[in-house]
Specification:
- Its EC number is 2.8.2.-.
- Belongs to the sulfotransferase 1 family.
- InterPro entries: P-loop_NTPase (IPR027417), Sulfotransferase_dom (IPR000863).
- By secondary structure, the protein is an alpha/beta fold.
- It folds into 2 domains: 298 residues, Rossmann fold (3-Layer(aba) Sandwich), CATH 3.40.50; 88 residues, no CATH class.
- The chain is 53% helix and 8% strand.
- The protein has 21 helices and 7 strands.
- Strand 2 and strand 3 form a beta hairpin.
- Helix 19 crosses helix 20.
- The longest helix has 19 residues.
- The radius of gyration is 22 Å and the shape is globular.
Length: 400
């Protein structure tokens, strides 16, 4: 059965969500009163529900989504924890699936932010309506949605359908720094900014939107291992390293493979160019305009760099992160093997220089990164200190 036939069959057989009854307000308030509550990073609250922390302002929307949503077999769900490459994944997937629907110069990405083309359940659809009109929310077929919710929280209709789920994760150190900068932009003027140390402590305790981070990652990782034909697990760093390969991988997984003719015509490369961070960031639509909660489109595009954490994290923070990665992902270390592998490569390279030259190398590295990236003195010192710390540990030195 081709994609068009599958979509038509789904639309005919779907149960109308307009007939669902919204959740009773008393029932909702009663539940909220029983939940553990903590302060969020930007002044509101987090509720701990079904094993994860969720923002108070989208909590009702999440419940309505879980209770009412009916999936189609043709649906595509893009999932992630915030600041893991969600915007990029939306642009890529939308362009891959709809590449034959319009000319390149008419690509909707030129006039719409990726989040407008692939709406988020808990922000865009269920926030103000317990039973939204999903068909009119998705002008293109197949329907494409996004969520930051953990796999365990997804509605049964998604798990039981033949729909496709794509999950993207990012190394937690870069994701944490990106989240810290982003949430500061959500902070009202009357709320004191959260220091890096405070944010780090909360992150490590799992107290952030849709955290704990490692539980979120492992939930989708395990699901992808159990059902690889329906759930694709991607790593941000892998896409950065070989985007053309992953565009083709995405297309094949979603049922929209690239033909030899398309590859010869450079269609894959064109999608990569259109969806690149540099191109998306410079589009007028992403320089202007607002998204849900008054989030400016331009705040969604910061750096998109791999390893930017080096400019901000202290050596002790990095060591703690390394232990968390190893402890939490011990049985699935392939998820962040690249992150740990690159750290160890640096350490091994330092070892070859000889113990007496390690400190000199770190000082040199700090000066080079400062010149190249216009880093602050504090940032370059942290980069050098980090390398010195981990190298000293591996080289068996008593003092770092």
């Amino acid at each position: 059965m081709d994609t068009t036939e599958m979509i038509s069959k789904d639309i005919v057989s779907i149960v109308s969500q307009d007939k669902e009854e919204p959740w009773d307000d008393d029932e909702f308030q009663e539940l909220v009163q029983t939940l553990p509550k903590e302060k969020n990073w930007y002044g509101t609250h987090l509720y701990f529900y079904q094993g994860f922390w969720c923002a108070s302002r989208v909590f009702r929307a999440m419940i309505c989504f879980q209770k009412h949503f009916q999936a189609l077999d043709s649906d595509i769900f893009l999932t992630s924890i915030p600041k893991s490459g969600t915007t990029w994944l939306k642009a890529l997937t939308f362009s891959i699936v709809n590449r034959n629907q319009f000319a390149r110069e008419e690509n909707p990405l030129l006039s719409s932010n990726p989040h407008q083309l692939v709406p988020v359940f808990e922000y865009d659809l269920y926030l103000n309506n317990p039973c939204p009109d999903l068909e009119n929310s998705c002008p293109y077929q197949p329907r494409m949605f996004s969520t930051h919710l953990p796999y365990a929280f997804l509605p049964p209709s998604i798990k039981d359908s033949n729909s496709k789920i794509v999950y993207i994760c990012r190394n937690p150190m870069d994701m944490f720094i990106s989240l810290w900068f982003f949430t500061d932009k959500l902070r009202p003027d009357n709320v004191e900014p959260l220091s890096l140390d405070e944010a780090f402590e909360k992150f490590c305790q799992g107290m952030h939107d849709f955290g704990p981070f490692f539980d979120h990652v492992l939930g989708y990782w395990k699901a992808s291992q159990e059902n690889p034909n329906r759930i694709l697990f991607l790593q941000y760093e892998d896409l950065k390293e070989n985007i053309n390969f992953h565009i083709k991988k995405l297309g094949k997984f979603l049922g929209f493979p690239f033909s030899e003719v398309e590859e010869e015509q450079g269609v894959v490369e064109e999608i990569a160019r259109m969806c690149s961070f540099g191109n998306l960031k410079e589009l007028d639509v992403n320089k202007n305009g607002m998204h849900t909660f008054g989030i400016a489109h331009n705040t969604l595009f910061r750096k998109a760099e791999v390893g930017n954490w080096c400019n901000y994290l202290t050596p002790s923070m990095v060591e703690y992160f390394k232990k968390l990665i190893q402890d939490k992902l011990d049985k699935s270390e392939v998820v962040f093997a690249r992150t740990l592998g690159e750290v160890n490569k640096v350490i091994d390279s330092l070892a070859k220089l000889g113990v007496d030259r390690v400190e000199m190398f770190c000082i040199w590295l700090g000066s080079v990164t400062k010149r190249q990236d216009n880093m602050s003195n504090n940032g370059s010192q942290r980069a050098a200190l980090f390398l010195w710390l981990v190298a000293s540990d591996r080289l068996g030195m008593e003092d770092a």
